[in-house]
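Exam revision sheet. Question 4 asks you to relate a sequence to its structure. Input first:
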Amino acid sequence: MGLDEYRKKIDDIDKQIMKLFVDRMETVTKVGLYKKQHNIEILNTCRENQVIEKNVKLLDDSLKEEGKEFLEAMMAVSRKYQAKIINKQNTSTYDYVKIGYPGVRGSFCHQALLEYFKTEKNAKNYNDFEDVFVSLKNGEIEYAVLPIENSSTGAINSVYDLLRKYGFYIVGEQCISIDQNLIGIDGTEITDIEEVYSHTQGFEQSTMFLQNHKTWKLIPYHNTATSAKHVKELNDKHKAAIASREAAKIYGLKVIKEGINDNRNNTTRFIIVGKKLQNDDIYNKISVVFSLKHESGSLYSVLKYFAENKINLLKIESRPREETNWEYFFYIDFEGNLNNEAIDKAINELKTSSSYFRLLGCYKASCEVK
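Answer key, structure tokens:
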């Protein structure tokens, strides 16, 4: 074979390399957007070293050094391109994703949605929790944002029940600091107030303040932001709402008394719900629900699986099992990833011991696990 033939062969090989290069960079783009979406650093030295080591092993010894240099250069190009794509993007990764939440703009759910997804371009609000689940079931939205627990008042039990009823999965979480405020129309003074609207959680989180105003009629409403909107529409200085400062701003209301919640560290944890179970190496939190027979020591025998496998439990919540008296559904959150051997062992042991078991999700923690 002459020089021209060798050059032609190299040209043909280069064409194949370019085609594979395009395929690789398209995938690199998707990885870059995923990293942006999940706030992950572009450089993952451990991952790059693993890829290089794995592929260099495929080469003869005579080419290992050059192969390593080639892969390192390719990794550098990929990182540079990912950074370019991420910096170039002026829109959120979720701009074209349909997201549902209960309540209206200015609600804490709305705030959690903005902090997690960084956009509300295709956000849709619903009157109550189940409306959001129904919409997800019918394909009207792709994700839902719902409150699951508050640091002052505990679990949002209806959301736990709906999560199990509809068979969806937790794919993320967002914690929001909650400050409740007494708000009303311009000109309203605290001495004018006769009726106060809010979600029951708003009342429960502001018990000490409300104890000093026992003559007020407390009227439960869909949620705090809807309460604010309703008070604005009533345009009556004898009516007030307990809601966020953001809700007051959106609906043009006056903050009469700020920070009325009992707990200064009042926080609500919101879950992001989707139709499909997700898993990734960066995920570090797992949620499950299970039920046991009403027998002495049954819960202890299950919890020991976690202790024996050195798995850190983050939360346990119980809910009555409607069809069977004195039996309960137990909702547990714990640290870990589904790819971990100890986690897999504990989950399999839990499945075997339970009369009912369901994996609720594996996701990246934003609240407890650092």
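Marking note for examiners. The chain is about 40% helix and 25% strand.
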